[in-house]
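Can anyone check this?
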Amino acid sequence: MNHIRDSKIKHSEETNWYVITGGPSTGKTTTIDLLQKQGYHTTIEHARHYIDTMHNEGNSVKEIRSNKKKFQLGVLDMQIAQEGSLNKEDMVFLDRAIPDAMAYYQFLNLDYDEKLLNAVNGVSYKKIFILDRLPFTKDYARTENEDDQKLIHQLIIESLYQSRFHYRFCSGFASRRKSEIHFR
């Protein structure tokens, strides 16, 4: 069953990490890029990184995305490794985080597995910011459409709620001025 409340959630010790999340095309990476330019420690978005890595090995996006479980596990492994390498006391802004995988598992009709549940149980974040949806933009790595964008966005919200993570809704930080507020 995919409902996180069916497992025992025991988030790890507090971190000083802020998550920027939302469905596809909400301005997450743009926001992360602006924060990085202002000198903040940031992370990359792992689904795109996984696609780029596999593409460099000769696989097409279609091939990469065709095995949904393998794709999600590859992305989750990268996210787990990255978050495991961060210092809990450092202020870091993450472009998505481990809990996002719950929404994508649901979107792809995959059952939660032990790896995902253990990963979700083992993380904690200072704050999670869910960016508002923006007009959908298709690019080389996205296979979703606008209806998928809406569904994934809602699944992220529901997954965070069910797993008892604290979050707040934010408008996209498309301008430099807006990216300087709301993070303390």
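Reply from J.R.: I decoded it. Residues 83 and 97 are 8 Å apart (CA to CA).
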